[in-house]
Design goal:
alpha/beta, 18 helices, single chain
Length: 482
Amino acid sequence: MKTLFILIIFLICGTTLAKSPKYVFFFIGDGMGVSHSEIAEYFVKKTQTKDNSSFAINHFPVVSIVKTYATNVDITDSGAAGTALATGHRTNYKHLSVTPNGERVKTIVEEAIKKGWSTGIITSTKITDATPAAYMGHHANRKKENNLAEQITESGVNFIAGGGLGHFIPRSMNGSLREDEKNLLELMSIKGYTLFTGMRGWEDFKTLSFLEKQNIFALFSYKKLPFVINQNESGPSLETIVDKAITCLSKHKKPFFIMVEGAKIDTAAHKNDLPTTIHETIAFNKAIQRAVEFYQEHKNETLIIVTTDHETGGLGLGHIKDEKNFNISPILKAKTTMVDSEHNEHMEYKGNKKEWFEKIDKYLGLLPFSKTEMKIIKNAMSYDDVYRTKSPLLKTWFQFTGALNASSRELGADAPYPRTSIAINRILSARANVYWTTYGHTASPVPLYAIGVGARLFSGVMANYEVGRKLAKIMGLDLSQL
């Protein structure tokens, strides 16, 4: 009887212990709805002969639905959504880890550090952008990135990697995005971080072996990282960064929490750029796969969650009424993005029609255009000509001729500038039998995938702030108090 009693106690304790993971990976595919991952996986399956073309998330045992509403609006942004995931609190649009009244709330990372966890924050955009900053900073306006950069230097996070170097260097330095002479990069060095900056820093970073315990601060661009479609094989990749984070934080000999954001899925979807959206989603999946490999070696200690903050673009799979298949040919031909003026300014239409069409043919392979497509492009060019010159007289003329109104009808009045790029993106998507309903976010519920210790806790339909609360609970953290 005594032996049976001890066995029962052992089983109860064992079950309790098993519910607290030692290693937690939290992946956020910014803007990634079900359609984004579905068309990306379809593309991979059609272009690869390998057996591993299926995305890792398809094999996670828990698949759930998450609602993304903010406190004051139905269609959220990454600030309010990031806050919900990072703190377990719902808040207003553009707020960052503060209540609707502006009071600071605890974040999972802040509380994990207090409990002795090692932590890592990784993104493919600026580290000061809403999603990563929600774990390390607090502000009623997510756009106050210089202030958030200062908070990030005080966060105590062990491994920080992404872009946004411009917010950490003084105004007098090339590439700075600051309005003062504060050198936060120097401050991070004083705090004992090993620094890696720019593409030269990337070359050093990817060969780093982590023979000893280190804290890492790695920013590989002044703003966001280059889009995958524009990189060569040696460019910064989420997969490599996640791999280095695992190696680095394992040296700390503590439980660790790593948040990884695939940020540029959202950026590409905002501009309805299908090839870029697909390549960013594929890159995000590769990063997840690296965490899954770690999970395979630590199944009884690891939890992996993959979700998104909101859906972007209203991506619809099916555009042509009588066409029952997708067409990947225009996606395969695309060798560049039409989104990225920071890294890819040469693709922007600037008035020289002949030169621009030559580039479209060379880098996207879309020529020839149909009469309908050419009409859309010419109307968009007219709009961009006016926007670029900002001439009131020219604007009046084009309004009189109807070209500006035509562009608004065809692409939507809220179409971003330059509209010629947007027109190309819409035409390419239509040829692929895919369409977009908006250039912004939507209120569509988003998926959540989970595997590992405590994954079942995330089953069902839930609000985004509940995801944050459930994660905190399973990690033994208290986010209930402000």
